[in-house]
Amino acid sequence: MTNQSRRRILQTTGAVISTTILGAGAASAQKANSRFLIDLREVSRAQVPEDVEIIHDLSEIDMLAAQGDESKVGGPSATTPDIKVDWSGDKGGAVKEQSGPSVDERSNSHNHDGPPKNTEYQWDKRVQDVGDYTDKPDDGKSVHDTTTGEGTRVAVVDTGVSPNHPDLEGVVNEELSANFTTDGLGFEPNGAGDHGTHVAGIIAATNSNDGPAGGGLGTAPDTEIVSLRVFSRKENYTSDSLAAFLYAAEVGCDAANYSVGYPEPYVDPEEYPWLIGIRDAYRRTAKAVREKGMLIVNSAGNDGLNMNTENILSLPTEVEGIFGVSATGPIGVGWGDKHSDNEEKWLTENRLEEPTTQPAFYTNYGSAVDVSAAGGNADVEELSENPDAYNDLVYSTVISTDEQGNVVPGYGWKAGTSMAAPQVTAAVALVRSLRPDAGVEEVERLIKDTATMPEEGELYHGDGHLDLERLVKATK
């Protein structure tokens, strides 16, 4: 079967697989009934009635996030409905569970019971020469021989990060971490699963868990994570995320990982003025945080869409100033027979049916993609028959809840552009650890210029596929 034939088959089954393995699944977006953004370039703060509640002061971008009667605040140009992102429609749950912790409905983790061999599962680290997982014997050195991201700080703007996972202990700055929703709880996950914890592990897991569950390693294990929760259970409001970005830049984060996004129909700007308003709010925010030295890294989305089409606007990936990341992944890592004879050769020669740089079947693509990175891939037929097929997904830190409501740390597989974005966020940390004074544009240029271009070309990969070895060599 040719690569293109396989890709077409996988794309046609995307609706099925997205509810079972994708880290972010399929999100829907809608205008919030009573929440809206006020444009302070169109109306003064003094004109906002007292019975309109201000939820977030976004005056740094000349906006306020409010709740109440939108009609009381100026004319149509003065306000934009807030957008609610809802993941509650994704009810796939785990495709396959072995004995061990259960998983949240949307976390979609395949949990492993027993000591894992990390060199088996973390193909994304092996192909990037991270830690001891180098597959390039030319000099025997890994990326971590040059830098582990020390002295840097990144925000995970997501569902919350569990600071009590063994591989994230001491990594999460609990003092700076915060909750930007209105539910009144803390920064840790609250009913939205372990998406943020999985993302954080890809960035900064320390592989320090010496318990029976083994451990996992992040690309930048010495960076500091700031957990900024913007999901209350399954729901997120755009204004909560905007406030989190501005805060992250204020507390000195080098990058903010945002593995959230949604495509919207876009035909006539006059028909969708609220969409234009939201895009402008993201644009203003990106500009403001870049001026403070922070880069927003965003997942391109899991809808298999060409974002160059005129009738689709994918937010916030297509916003100027936001770094968009598409996903790639292998097919065939450790699948038994010839694939498991010699694990050191899993990622070489003809042992893979698809290389690690193959565009994942679900990934969005187009000119809004800056680079591609490891997000995991899947062969649908094999997943139903071969448990080793989960090795093609991305392995990282997860959490679940036991019968008493206690948080139980673990490890699991997910796939999605949600998993690809943190690979790049960690790369930003590596660059900034070597060049603390590098501006945002310099960091972006280094990542793009050192990326390598696979056969599929820029439609899927932007400026190329993330190459950490070339990146750190060019940066130091």
Primary descriptors:
alpha/beta; 7-stranded parallel β-sheet; 6-stranded antiparallel β-sheet; disordered N terminus
From the spread of the alpha carbons, the general shape counts as globular
Strand order of the largest sheet: 7-8-6-11-13-15-16
Multimeric state = single chain
Q: The biggest beta sheet, please?
A: 7 strands, parallel
Class by SSE composition: alpha/beta
Low-confidence stretches: 1-19, 89-117
Structure write-up:
This protein has helices spanning 3-12, 14-17, 118-121, 123-126, 195-204, 238-250, 273-291, 338-341, 380-385, 417-434, 440-449, 458-461, 468-475; strands spanning 28-39, 53-58, 63-67, 79-86, 110-111, 153-158, 178-179, 224-229, 231-232, 235-237, 255-258, 262-265, 295-299, 312-315, 323-328, 369-374, 394-401, 407-414. It has a 7-stranded parallel β-sheet, with helices on both faces. Strands 2-3-1-4-10-9 form a 6-stranded antiparallel β-sheet. The protein has a 3-stranded antiparallel β-sheet with strand order 5-18-17. It is an alpha/beta fold and 476 residues long. It is globular. 24% of the residues lie in helices and 20% in strands. Helix 5 links the parallel strand 7 and strand 8.
